[in-house]
Design goal:
The protein is of the alpha+beta class. It has one domain: 2-Layer Sandwich (Ribosomal Protein S5, domain 2). Helices cover 31% and strands 32% of the residues. It has a 4-stranded antiparallel sheet with strand order 1-2-3-4. A hairpin with a 2-residue loop joins strand 5 and strand 6. Helix 2 packs across helix 3. The protein starts with 14 loop residues before the first strand and ends with a helix. 29% of the residues are buried.
């Protein structure tokens, strides 16, 4: 199991974005008691992101609690030139999020909850597709799970014990079948 280091939110310029607000009811003897739950993502627009869930009688208080919780759960992931280093699929519950790197100028092509995560994380060019359920809580968790599984190319080179020259020489070789077609 990989130990994820805890990131101190002090000194980071964190932006927060409300993803989803839900009115929930508790049925008691005298009727219904209403409260609000809020799902919030926070990020520094530089590869650090966190999610939080808050619940309170008033919406602003629920958002404040969610932001507080999100700051305690910050995680880091690699960003290369405004996009992710490679394709990855994040899974949580019945939700899957396919995350693909994109060329510069593409923008954020993602829907709903996934878009909110990328907006505060600092990713400018990405293509993502949410599959499975439509629950925003699970969708956000699947997205963050995928982002935390990303690997930086420099780290992979070091793990494999290769120098920059060796990694450059290992370019994909075209097969004879693809050469004969053209």
């Amino acid at each position: 199991m990989v130990k994820i280091e805890k990131i101190n939110p002090e000194g980071l310029n964190l932006k927060d974005k409300v993803v989803f607000i839900n009115r929930v009811a508790k049925v008691v003897k005298g009727g219904r008691r209403f409260s609000f739950s809020a799902l919030v993502v926070v990020g520094n627009e530089g590869g650090i992101i966190g999610i939080g869930k808050g619940k309170a009688a008033e919406v602003p208080e629920a958002i404040r609690k969610a932001v507080e919780q999100a700051k305690k759960r910050l995680k880091k992931f690699p960003i290369i030139e405004g996009t992710v280093p490679h394709k990855i699929i994040g899974r949580y519950g019945s939700n899957s999020v396919v995350i693909n790197p994109a060329r510069k100028g593409t923008g954020i092509i993602a829907g709903g909850a996934v878009r909110a995560v990328f907006e505060v994380s600092g990713v400018q060019d990405i293509v993502a597709k949410s599959l499975g359920g439509h629950n925003p809580f699970n969708t956000v968790k699947a997205t963050i799970e995928g982002l935390t599984k990303l690997k930086d190319p420099e780290t992979v080179k070091r793990q494999r014990g290769k120098s920059d020259e060796e990694a450059q020489s290992e370019e994909p070789v075209e097969s004879e079948a693809s050469v004969n077609k053209g």
